[in-house]
Structure formats: C-alpha cells, structure tokens
Amino acid sequence: MSSNKKYWTSVEELKEDSSIVEALQQKEFVEEIPVDEFLGNKNSLENSKTSRRDFLKYVGFSTAAATLASCEGPVVTSIPYVVQPERIVPGKSNYYATTMADGFDFSSVLVKTREGRPIKIEVNTMGNTGANARVQASVLSLYDSKRLKRPKANGQNISWEEFDRAVRGRLDNVDGEIALITPTYASPSTSRLINEFSQKYGNVRHVVYDTVSEDSALNAFQARYGRRALPSYDFSKAETIVSVGADFLGDWQGGGYDSQYALGRIPKEEGRMSRHVQFESNMSLSGSNADKRIPVTPSQQKAVLAALYGYIVGGGSTSELPSKLDDAVVKAAAQLRRSGNGGVVITGIPDDDAQALALAINERLASEVVDVENPRLLRQGNAAQVMQLVEDMNAGQIGAVLIAGVNPVYSLPNADQFVEGLKKVDLRVAFSSKEDETAKLCEFIGATPHYLESWRDVQFTGRQFTLMQPTIRPLFDTRQIQDVLLRWSDNNQTYYEYLRQMWSGMLGGEEAWSKALHDGAFQVENGVDNAITGETSAEGGAGINNDVAAARNLSQSSENNGMELELYTSVAMGDGQQANNPWLQEMPDPLTRASWDNYLKISRADAEEMELENYHVANGGLNGSYVNIRLGDTLVKNVPVIIQPGQAKGAVSLALGYGKTEAIQEEMQVGVNAYPLYKNFKSFQNITLEKAEGIHEFACIQLHNTLMGRGDIVKETTLEIFNTKDSHFWNPVPEVSLNHQETPVTAPEVDMWESFDRSIGHHFNMSIDLNACTGCGACVIACHAENNVPVVGKEEVRKSRDMHWLRIDRYYASEDEGFGSDIETKENMSGLGSSLSTFAELEQPADNPQVIFQPVMCQHCNHAPCETVCPVAATVHGRQGQNQMVYNRCVGTRYCANNCPYKVRRFNWFLYNKNEEFDYHMNNDLGRMVLNPDVTVRSRGVMEKCSMCIQRTQKTILDAKRDGRPVEDGEFQTACSLACDKGAIVFGDVNDDSTLIYEKSTDDRMYHMLEYLGTKPNVMYQTKVRNTADA
Amino acid sequence: MKKVKYRHSTSRILLLGVAFFLSFTVIGIAQDQADASAQQDAAEQGQEQAPSEGGESEDSGAATGLGDAASGKSLFNSLCAACHKPYSESIGPALNGVTSRHDMDWLYRWINNSGNLIASGDEEAVAIFEEYNETVMPPFPQLTETQINDILAYVEQPKPEPAAGQQAGGEAGASGGGQGVSMDIILGILAFVLLMLLAVLFLVNKTLRNFAEASGVVLPEKPKRKPIHKAFVENEFLLVVVAVFVLLTVAYFGYGYLMQVGVDQGYKPIQPIHFSHRIHAGDNEIECRYCHSSARTSKTSGIPSLNVCMNCHKSISEVAPETATEEFSKQFYDKEIAKLYAATGWEPGSRTYSGEAKPVKWIRLHNLPDFAYFNHSQHVSVQGTQCQTCHGPVQEMEVMYQNAPLTMGWCVNCHRETEVRMEGNQYYDKIHEELARKYGVEEVTAAQMGGIECGKCHY
C-alpha cells in the first residue's frame, strides 16, 4: 500500500524524544534477561548444595523415568449401564425433534444425541422454520459451566422444597401486585397456566418483555387487524421485494425468512428470479444480498417509505427526496406495481406509522407474500407495559416481582430506574439459568433448565405449532417456570402431564400427540388456538385516513441533521442471551469479518471527517480508533470503530447483546453494552459522537476487502446476460496454451497428472450456489459442532490462527458495475507503477459496494497441491474424491498450507483442549460433553482441515450396506449442507446421475474456484446472477 | 520400505535357544512325558469316577422305589431346570426332599396340573402358590407317573460331594512331583560323573608330567603368544566389523523393543468379576452377539449391561459342579455370581431388586487409540467376519485376553487379503457389476475397494 499515514499504537509514540518509545524501537525485549541475579552471586552459587553433577543426575533420571513411564499402557475402565435403556445403543446416535425458543430465536430442530448427550442441532425439515447460527450453537449453551446448578436464596443454595415454601409463604401475604415478567413464550399452554396462576392470586400482572422489541410492528398490526401479532411472509412467492430498513435475512420480526427468500433467488428455468431492493443505513445481511442497495440514513428511510406509499397507494406523485433517491424510489414503486401481487414492501423502522404504511402498501398490492390471516406470534412484548411496570415499581405498587427468562437489569434501556424500582419491591424472585445481573439483585433465584431439558409447546403462527421435549435428563437441580407455576397454583400435575393432557385433547387422542411429538411440528386449523389461549380478536379497522396521516407524520419526522444511530442485532450474538458461548463469540461477522467484539460501524466519509481510522499492523491485525457515544444523559464510552463500506453517511450502527459482565467467563466479556442507548425500545436514535483516546485491536479474519479483479474466485453476471447470452460468455472455462493452441484447462491433454479412475463407487462432490447463500453462517457453527473444531480466542484469531474449517469469505465490488468492471480495470493496467496505484485503488471498497458471500472449505482437489508436498504422506487422496488428512501421521511441517491455493488448511499452534490457556468448552468436563465422539480431537502441532465430513459419508455407506440397499439421493450429507436450509450447499455422489449434485455439476452456472490452476476441485460453485433490471 | 518382523524378536531368539538345548535333553525327558500322560489319564479317570459314584446313588434312589434317576435327569433338565433346582431355591422351591414333604398322589396331581389343584382350594397347593409370589407352574399333563417317578428319583439323590474328583487329581499331581525328583537325581549323578571324569583327566595329566620330569624328558616349550585381546585391538578390520555388528545388533533389538511399546497383545487384566467366556461361549455355546448385541448395529461391540446378565442369572445362582476346574472351584464361581447380584442389587432370597445398583468398572482390554476409527457392525454384520478372527478362541478363554496385536499393520494385512462379501447385498450390486464389466474381476479385496485409504479409519 502506498500510504504515508503515520501509524501509532500508543499516545506515547506521538511525543518526541520519548525514552520509552526509543527503547521500544531499538530492542525487541526491553527488559534485560535477569541472568546476573542468579548467576552473578558467587556466594550463593558456592553454598548451593546442588552441584553440576547432581543437576545432570536429576536430568538423566527424570528423562529415563519419563521414558519408562510412557511405555506402560494406562488402565482404562469401562462402565456399562446396569440397566440399558432400550433405545440407547452405545455408538449410535438418536435423533429427537424439539424446539429452540428462548424468546428471541424460535426454531424447530432435530437434536442428535449420543449415549444420551445432545451433541448437535440440525434443521427439522418438518418444522420448516430454518435454523440460524445461534440455534446451531445453542447445544453448547446446554453445557455452559456458568449455569446455575440449584435454586438459591440470598446467595445460599437451598432445595426446591425450601424454595417453594419460602416463596409461597411470602406470595400469599404479598402487599401489592404480583408482577410476572417473561419473554415471549408463544406457548398456548403457558398462557393458560399463567391465567390459572393469576386466578389463584388475583392480583397478577403478566408483562411480556421482548429484549429486542417489535413493538411498533405489533402496534400497527393490532390497530389494523385487531390482534397483537405480526404478519407472516412467504418470500418464495415474491417477485419484487422492497425493504426499507428491514433486515429480514437477519432477525427482523423473529427471523427465519431466509430459506424462503433463497428459493426465489435461484434463477428458474424460464429465467426468472426475484428482485430485491433494499433501502438501509446499516450494511446488513439483507442489504448485502440485495440486487440494488441504496444507503439512506434512518430518518431518510421514513421519507422513503412515505414516498413509496405516495407512489403506490396514491396521494403523492412527487416527494421531497433528493432527486437520485427519489429516482430509486420511483423505480422501486414501478417495479412493485408491475409485480402485482408478487410485490411486497417491508420495513424495520421502529415507528407505528411506518409499520402501518407498509401494511397499507401490501394491502393495496394485494400481495400474496403477506399473510395476515395466519399471523406470526413470535413477538408479543409490549413496550408500554414494561415502562408502566418500571414506573409502578418505583411508585411502590408492586409487592412481588417474578422475573423469568429475561435479564432487564442488563438489557433495559432504563436499567437504573428498574434497579431502583426493584429495591422497593418486597419479594424479588428470578427464574434464570444463570446468576446474571438481574438474578444477582433478587432474593430468590430459581434455577431453570436449558431448552434441551424442558417441555413446552410453541405457536409460531395462528396455525403452526411445534413441541419442545427434553433430550437429556436435567444436568442440574433445575425446574422450569411452568412446573413452578403449576405447583403454586395447587395443581399436582407436572408440566409434562399438563401439556400432554391439553394437546391430547386438542389433537384428538394420545396417538396424535405421540405423532406430533415425534414430528416436532404440527398444524392446527383455524380457530383452535383462540380456544386454547382464550384470546379474543378485537376489532381492528384503522383505515385509509389514518394511513395518510401516518404518511404525513412520517415525512415530517424524517428531518434530521445530527448523527443517527441504528441499533441492530448481530448474526453471531442476537440479543446476547448466548454471550457465554465461545462458538458464537468466535464466529466472524459476515460483513466486517470481525469476531469477539462489537463496534460502531461508520461510513468512510464520516470517519475521515472525525479523523477516525482503521489500519492493519504488521502481524495482520486490524486496529481502530475509539469513540464515545452520547445520547442525552447516557454516555457509552470507548466504542471501537470499524469503517464499513456501504454504511450510509450520517448514520452509524452498533450491535446489541454484547458487554455482559455477570455469569459470563472473563474471556467472553467483550464489546460494549449498547442497551442503554436503546431508549424507548427504538432502534433509531439521534446521538453525538466524539473521538476518544486509544486504539482498539480487532480480531478480524479477512484482510483484503475487495476481490481486486480476481474473477476466478467469484463469478457473477446479471440476469439479463444470463438469459440472453451463451454460458461461454458469462462463465468461460479458463484456457491454457497447448502447442500454441488455446485449450480449456479442463481438457485431459493439458493435464500433467494421470487421473485415477473414479467412475466406480462413490465420488463425492459439493456444490455451493452463490445465489442462494445469504452468508448467515449457520454452516460455520454446524461445522464446529460436527468436527470438534477448537475455539482459539481473540488473541489467536487476531494472529490469523483461527481454526474455522469453513469460512464465508465476503468480497466487495464497485457499485453498480460489479465485479466485471474490476476485472476490466485489472486487465487494462500497464506497467508496475500504474498497477501498484490501481491495485491500491481497487483495494478501497466503494462507498456502496456490491457484496458477495462465498463459503470456502477444503476444495478436495483431485490434483491437490498439498498432497505432493507432504514429506510424510499425511495428506492423501481417497478414491471417493476426499482429500484425507491423517492427524496421527502429520508432523507439522506446514508445507501443505503453504502450497494450498485456497488457504483452507489450519494448523494447531497449541493444544486447544484441556489447556488452561484456552479456557473454552474443551477445557472443562461439562463443555467436552458436546464433542462428537466420531471425530478425533486434534492435538498440538498437526494440520487440520475440512474432511468433507467423511465420518458422515462413511456412516451413510455403512447404513446402506447393513440394510443391503443402494444409497438414495439426499442421504449423503455434510454438516454444512445439512445446516444450509437455503439449499445453497448441496452434497452428493456425482457418479450417480440421478442425483441433484449431478444435475448441479452439469449446470451452466457451474465453475470451479481458480480453475486455471488445474487442481480439479471436488467443490464447485454456481455463478452468482443478479437481477439488475431497473424499472 | 521393506517390512521386517522385529516384533518379539527377543522372545523368538530365546525360544530358538531353548529349542536348541532341548534337542539334547529331549531323549531324557521323553520317558517322563510318557509318565505324565499316564498320570493325566489317571486324573481324568478320577474325575469321571465322581459322576459314576453318583450313578451308584441313583441305584440307591431306585431302591427307594421312585424310578430311574438317569432318565429322570434328562427329563428334569429339559422340563424343570428353568425354574427348579434340586438343592436350592430358584423361581420354584428346591426339590430335594419333596417326596417327604408331600405325598406322591398329591405330587402327581400338582405336576400334571397345579392350576387345577390350586383352584380346587387344596390348602397345601394354595400355600405354595402364595409363598412363591403367585407364580403359576405350567401344567405337564404329558408326564406319566413313571416319568414323574424318574424325575423325583433324580432330585431325591443326596447332594454329591464335589471334592472327590479333585482329590484324585491332587494325588495324581503329587505322584507326578515324585517322578520329577528322581529326574533331578539322575541329572545330579550325571553331573557328578562328569566332574569325576574331569578330575581324573587332570590327575592323569599331572601324573604323566611328573613321570616325564622324573624320566628327564624335556617337554617342548610353547612360544609365548600375544594375548588375544591385544591382537584384537590391533586388528583394525576386525574391530570395525565387530563394532558394526554390535551396533547393528543394538539397533535391531532397540527397534524391536520400541515397536512393541503400546502393543498390548496378550494383555490379560484381572476383572472385577471373574467372567469366564469359556463357560458362556464355550460350554454353553451362547452366541457372542446375544450379549454383545450392539456389535450388529454399532461401532462398539458394547460391554453387556448387567440386565443382560440377569436374563439368565435370575435363575442361575450357582454353577453346576461339572463347571468347576482344577484352577477354579465351584465356590469360586458361585461367589462371582454373587458379585453380579450385588452389582445389580438383586436379592436371590426374595427374588427382587433392591434398587441399589453398583455399576461394574470393567477393565478395558482392547484399546484402540482415539485417532483410529473401528466399526464392529461393518465387520460383523456386513462382512460376516467371525468374532474369533480378531478376538481369538474366546470360547476357550477362562480369562479374556487380547488376542491380536491391534496394530495398523495387522489391520491392513487383513484388508489386503480378505475378499469383500458382496453377494446378496444390493448395495454392492451396481459396484460389482461395474467392476466386473470394467476389469473382469469377480472378487475384490477390501484394499481394492479403498479399504486401506488412510481417511477410512483416521478422521
């Protein structure tokens, strides 16, 4: 890089003639090695009883003893069951369908258990809800060493009997209201139970508190349709999606929409795919997948939506937007109109009016993407009620507060007031799985189980239900809140009996219940749900007049001059419930590629204005400045800054869910807590920024920001070209010169190597569709869980020693022209001078770049460069196409990693298990329960990499052999292909021409990464196609 | 690299040496062997005598007028032994002495159909029915009175003394020891004769010298030769050759030693419960996979859980006297069964579980390292490999030991030599057809199917 910037790591460096700086510059080790201290003292040396000969004796003896001791094999004991459960066969896995539901993430999942331990989460295809990275990682949270092991009272361990007696005694004589604060359970049986509890005590106030609120959307929906719910969407039906600040591929309105979205993104045979336009300030997953992304500040988003309403529903043919933005809105409106009922407008603006307008537009479009008849029930929080409760607590009206499954002391914007109020409440009981910030302030703590140890039902929408069932006997002396409430309501049933009785009756018999439990999900036709919950539909009917008023309000409120903040939930951390999960902490953010942190994302222009900088240091780590964020009286100090290409100028964004300090391991106490800025549960805030002292060190794993014209890595084209031109034009096979003739690199005659015959037996291939991949990272976590990939910590990630077998590379390209123009620029370079400066330019991503996500794992090259350089033949090729890595043979020369063009090999620099230095899940007995017993836990000094889940393919083959049948299509799966609910990753046997993978391998869009190298990878990619058709 | 079988070279050389020496002494010992085998025969006869003594008492049983105990024994074993034992309680009461407890007529009726007897309200019958947890004894209407007599004759035999056979064996052993002593004496005499010969030779030599001196014969003086060690040191060639030889030998043995580190072939730990595979798999011919059931479907063969043991041992609380060997007595085995009861919390008296189970910590024999994957079902179910192929003659093992070295070379050798069983398995149909078409081969080994690829076992 040709930069004259002065880099500094400390303020000290800015001073001239600083002796410290001088010393630091001259010497690598500033302190002298204190040899003299123990060798210089002649007296002590002479008086020492240990002579040199003694020393040698000790060395000799200990060496010999160690050698002899190592020759003796250890005695291993095996303890079989006394009575073996019928369904458990040691060495075989069992699967159970259950539901993850923690108030933020809701997902129907399959749990893989081995010898009774859950070890992996998989998508339940019958539930059809998808599973994001946090859901995949939730199995590790079961084995969290910070979990509460038994109930407590005033910091002392007590039994549940004592707990019941003490709390009930106080509840019966409570002075004032009993407040029950819960997250969204979306559980009909729990609602009924709480009703019964309320009836018993009479003065119970149930407040649903969503940590990350969808209050505006709920209010708008309630006003229009009379029910506190959210509309359901089916994006696979969408032709045109216009999103105004809604990160619907992330956690917007409960998330889980990405798999349907991806279905519509793959060009169909008639050459159609959906068109996605995104107006947003924060560069989100949705924005990076959009065909067209327009960066606008939060306040402008309101104006955009109001204008869109005007253009579509009527009332306005002009807007006060800047002309360029107005143009984009006009085009979006035109496309929406053209798509008719295939169009949909969604918004994430935390404003009742904005949400109402989106509903109104969709109603006008008669969009079939939206379903208001069968609404979503995954968010039920009521911001007003929460605020009222805090007030009433401070006013002393509340006699007892039961806080279950939420942590308001950490996550409430006005946590101070809450703490004040809490002190005035006579009886404070927390039901929590951790001794967190809130539980610490409570007199009684009821230890609650993890969802993998619990029963529950979950209502996703009006008609779709799922069940939660335990997959392991509770690890600790825990009791779920439902069981506690049943006891306190003088009901002798357990919650399981209660649930079973209710649903057996509802579904019409025990058999139906068993089937529902087996499947994990079921549908109930209309009307039944109301019978369960006793909920009645109120009249909605906010009409057109209200909408016009809303549009007016919205465009008026859109004026803003200062810096605006958007609070978002990151892909890894969500609302922060699983902050003590090292898999999630180490998972790099899809866009910034930073792990173990949260940071303020800012646009380049704003950063330059404030003299904030990001730069790389010699070891490759990224450093950045700090800022202080001020919002009214609230000051959040020392927030590190990352310059995010595509961030709207005038807007910054910060992730929620970080900065926890209680019940969380020290290593995981990273980032700043952004909840104090989440005033009134609004994700848009006006703030002021000031630069702070110091430099922050990030653990960012991808250095280069753009692809720099290397089209052999990522190929992309537009829908127009895709539909009209031959595939040789947009997906050319690289050619090499053979006898002065250009020959495709895939031709056998240009091959230096003799190929093995792979036509017999299985030959595994993997296809990754760049169109369907949204970059969500579920595959990364699934790979961790399946393959015992270690967590290395922030320091090591910063040194590029991350161990991810599967990474999702993110590339930026110049706006509009896309990757093609970058290639052109590269081709047109002449001379060294020009290429240096042009490359430097290319490396700077544009202000609104296009983004591509590309999952990269070992490509399993048939002509693998790594195999030829290994001096000990520790990496060899199998006839099924897998490049095999033999850990016990590896001596750690790392030649293979050097020779790998795809940079997918990972070296174990340290022993990552049973090592105090790496105090993550592999360093405690509880955390190690998550390890997959079929995969070796690697030791220090060996290379490791993606094995294409050979343990899974081997198992599939063995199962088929044992049953005496051929393997069917879809049976071969890797952890990543199984985790990808979007169908972006497809795996299978390419020798069987009836398989999907065979179809993919003959697709026009198929290409291999860096094909010109002739490595003949077994992983293929499908060219990305963008629907750039602008109105 | 050429493979050399260094493993256990030390023991092999020792064995050769021993064989060498033995070849000189074999003639001397041959006589003793004949003696020993004769004694063995005697011992066996002694053991056989024990049952035949029982036979005599059967005659005495016949004398009581009950029936033929020999045919009664076979009837008892096929019909009654599942629930009854002659001398101790099982699911039903001990039968010895039953004829004195009940009259014969009652016994016939009971055995033919106990249900009717209970239903008829017979006091004796109802009392027994209630005493044994209201377990109904199945009716045996097919038994004639003579047959019932035979059975009763068998169960009414007095309890045999188990020590008789062992005593005979012990005596035989002692007399064998006596023969060993005489052998030592012969050897001693031989050694003494040799010594005497040497002494005589020395004395003759001395006398001859004295005679020569006396008669004035001058003996030619030997020229003084260089001492052999000096000559050796001066001969550089020899020195180098010897040094090379010594170094090679050290390397050979050193390598051999190091290669057997971690190879636990023959590992035979003492288990917390003395479980005899000889009795279960050998004498009783219980199929291996009855207990090790997960070998059929799982990667582990599974140490049987104790409830599997209790399937049979609920009614087998002691071993038959014939099961006892010289080394392990019946009391010993019965004590081991008692350990199983303690572990499962089974109370043989009340025939109930106390609920206090103490899991057994077995010592694991076959320890593959964690980086090697092995799947039993692949070998047992798919290929149909016999358990004995790897585990050796388990049916003869009183104490289980590791039969195979479990080294990678051992695995790979088998994969190279073993043909994959393909017929009748539809999974292989397509592959087999293609192979046959392309290469004209009908049989392929595991190695040819990719069975020696590193990644198939190391991941």
From TrEMBL, chain A:
Coiled coil: none annotated. Pfam families: Fer4_11. CDD domains: PsrB. PROSITE patterns: 4FE4S_FER_2 (PS51379), TAT (PS51318). Residues 764-794, 881-910 form the 4Fe-4S ferredoxin-type domain. This is TAT-variant-translocated molybdopterin oxidoreductase. It comes from Autumnicola musiva.
Automatic annotation (TrEMBL), chain B:
Pfam families: Cytochrom_C, Cytochrom_CIII. Residues 67-159 form the Cytochrome c domain. InterPro entries: Cyt_c-like_dom, Cyt_c-like_dom_sf, Cyt_c_III_dom, Multihaem_cyt_sf. The keyword Transmembrane helix applies. The keyword Transmembrane applies. It comes from the Bacteria. Residues 37-50 have a biased composition (Low complexity). Keywords: Electron transport, Heme, Iron, Membrane, Metal-binding, Signal, Transmembrane, Transmembrane helix, Transport. Coiled coil: none annotated. Residues 1-30 form the signal peptide. The chain crosses the membrane at residues 185-204, 237-258. Residues 37-67 are annotated as: Disordered. This is Cytochrome c3 family protein. It comes from Autumnicola musiva.
